[in-house]
Amino acid sequence: MVQLNSSSMSDLHNCSINDFKKVVYPTIYLTVFILGVTGNSLSIYVFLQPYKKKTSVNVFMLNLAISDCLFVLTLPFRVHYYLYDSVWVFGDAGCRIMAYSLYVNMYCSIYFLTVLSIVRFVAIVHPFKHLKLTAIKYSRIICVVIWVFVLATASPLLAVGPSSNTTCLDLHPNSTDKMRGLNYFSLGLGFILPFCTIILCYVLVIKALLKTKLPQAKIRASHKKAMSTIIITLFMFLLCFLPYHILRTIYLEWGNGTKSNCSLHKGAVVTLGLAATNSCLDPVLYYFVGENFKERLRSICKKQGTQHQMDIP
């Protein structure tokens, strides 16, 4: 897991990267914070409501929402940093937590989204195996494994301190080689493998749908949810994660030298912002393909409306 530095430690005097960051990062992070806290808090509340039928899909989505909610709570600190001319006032430990939280959330999101696609795929192609895979017990075990794995593999970021007492979220020149190695590890295991898995699920689901003849209404509904889950997940990968991983790799290989390209730095800023937007887009997935999510939300709204009427004298 690698902290992407979207600014160079030298030769940026002729580049307006600092002014660019001061505008772009606070705008994106504040938007993600407002939408993310609202959407994910509501989603967590909905998922935790008692319901007659518990599903593995909602277990994975609940964990994804928790990951997103924890991350967006760190964004005000990032906004403060960039609005106050990149001066970090929250201490060494706070700086390390910023980088750590970003990558824990990113790769937890990637793995949870991948597992959701696999579950939907298995439900269509191997329905009997799906019964075991979707058992609540196994879904909780999978969630624990994902959390432990990501927390452990992201832990090297906690050992990488800020480049100075007042600077944070920047790559120290002495850490470039170490970050390069961590980048390729996270790129392969944290992005390429899940991305290829989702594409494979997408292709196999389409193949299965083409073979299906006159499906019953219930089967059609499950097929629709499977396709919707994979399509939305694929869209989020293409929008949030693919540009970021490409720019991060390019930057670590060629963007930290004395002839750094200003456009590359600005591109890194934009793609890091796009990666953060994943946290406010996930609730869209819950609403459209979550198991009984709409019904639960309507039930909560109905109860709140009834309670409000009872409170009126």
From TrEMBL:
The chain crosses the membrane at residues 28-48, 60-84, 104-126, 138-161, 181-205, 226-247, 267-289. The keyword Amino-acid biosynthesis does not apply. GO terms for molecular function: G protein-coupled receptor activity. It is a multi-pass membrane protein. SUPFAM superfamilies: Family A G protein-coupled receptor-like (SSF81321). It comes from the Eukaryota. GO terms for cellular component: plasma membrane. This is Cysteinyl leukotriene receptor 2. It comes from Pelusios castaneus (West African mud turtle).
